[in-house]
Amino acid sequence: MSSWEQFTLEGKVAVVTGGTGVLGGAMARGLAAAGARVAILGRRQDIARAVADAIAAAGYEAMPLPADVLDEDSLLAARQALIENWGRIDVLINAAGGNRPDATVFGDLTFFNVPRSALEGVVGLNFTGTVLPIQIFGEPMAEQGKGSVINISSMAAQKVLTRVMGYSAAKAAVDNLTRWLAVDLAQKHGAGFRVNAIAPGFFIGEQNRALLIAEDAPSGSQDAPVLTERGQQIVDHTPMGRFGEPDELIGVAVWLASDASRFVTGIVVPVDGGFSAASGI
Ligand SMILES: NC(=O)c1ccc[n+]([C@@H]2O[C@H](COP(=O)([O-])OP(=O)(O)OC[C@H]3O[C@@H](n4cnc5c(N)ncnc54)[C@H](OP(=O)(O)O)[C@@H]3O)[C@@H](O)[C@H]2O)c1
Fold first, then answer.
1. Do strands 13-17 and 37-42 pair parallel, antiparallel, or not at all (unpaired)?
2. Atom 2, ligand 1: which residue's CA is nearest?
3. What residue segments make up the domains of the chain, in order of their start?
4. Which residue has its alpha carbon closest to ligand 1 atom 11?
């Protein structure tokens, strides 16, 4: 295999949970452009359909796959639909996740009164919502003895970010799961079944937009948006001095999904403009 051919995803089938979101959608488009057939998994059917249609309109193959990552029955139905249509599963990106306002330690909400339901909700979505899709979509990979799981972690797993207590702990658990499962799967199912993670730095998503941007630039203008105090702090602590663009996750996602990374398992790759390297001094 020539050096470039190792990166192709031709013949592979990929599922992207959170494919209806900003980062999952970008990675789904990237995998499709690299040759994979891509299933767009999320609860919002209309958005899943729109993302899949846009990929198809660009000349690649995609299908909407409505499911809830916390509902095993819906995941099992999604897996059945996927196998019936495309016959196999090679890649799973777990991008469903995020923080929620009622679990954010800010204003009147202190650590001491974070509601248990909010804590369990955020830990459940980010951790259990990663485990369940691996259990369900990973089974065919185990049978094939080959597959690539890519979890989406966060800088919050590595560095203390104020406010996001439960989210940070859940993403740290995702990092730990990535290493734990890499060992377990390689030992029990062979070297072809790999698990890695991407730790994005700061990107403007649907959920964090209001937290980071105070005022959008007028449409059509070249001006930068006005950032919130937190948004500005983030940019100040990112050596590259800006937020990430969702497409900037594609290179690592394609590499981890492809045979080019076939001796790589159990790692967490930061895509963060240098945030995790910087000490702040
Ligand atoms: N944006 C950032 O700066 C950043 C940084 C580090 C890590 N991350 C992580 O990257 C991932 C994607 O974030 P994003 O910024 O792209 O956020 P986003 O645009 O809000 O996307 C979140 C996605 O999660 C899906 N989702 C939520 N609950 C779900 C459920 N129960 N079942 C199935 N899907 C569910 C949503 O789909 P439906 O609503 O259609 O179900 C949506 O596609 C998250 O894990 C986030 O924690 C983001």
1. parallel
2. 203
3. 5-203+245-271, 209-243
4. 95
Mean per-residue pLDDT for 44-73?
Answer: 98
Say whether pLDDT at 33 is over 90.
yes
DSSP-derived pairing of the beta strands 213-215 and 226-227: antiparallel
DSSP secondary structure string for all residues of 98-130: ---GGG---TT--GGG--HHHHHHHHIIIIIHH
The answer to whether residue 265 scores a pLDDT higher than 80 is yes
- Ligand 1 centroid – CA 61 distance (Å): 22
Q: Which of 199, 82, 53, 29 is nearest to 9 (CA)?
A: 29
Task: Please tell me whether the overall predicted TM-score, pTM, comes out greater than 0.70 for this model.
Answer: yes
Give the tens place of pLDDT for each residue, 119-158.
999 999 999 999 999 999 999 999 999 999 999 999 999 9
Cβ contact 173:125 at 8 Å = no
Contacts of 115 (CB under 8 A, 6+ apart): 102, 103
* CATH H-level superfamily of 5-203+245-271: NAD(P)-binding Rossmann-like Domain (3.40.50.720)
| Ligand 1 site-directed mutation target among 38, 43, 126, most atoms within 8 Å of CB | 43
- Condensed to tens digits (0 to 9), the pLDDT of residues 160-219 reads 999 999 999 999 999 999 999 999 999 999 999 999 999 999 999 888 898 899 998 888
167 tagged catalytic: yes
CA 274 – ligand 1 centroid, Å: 22
Alpha helices by DSSP H, 159-281: 165-189, 209-212, 229-236, 250-257
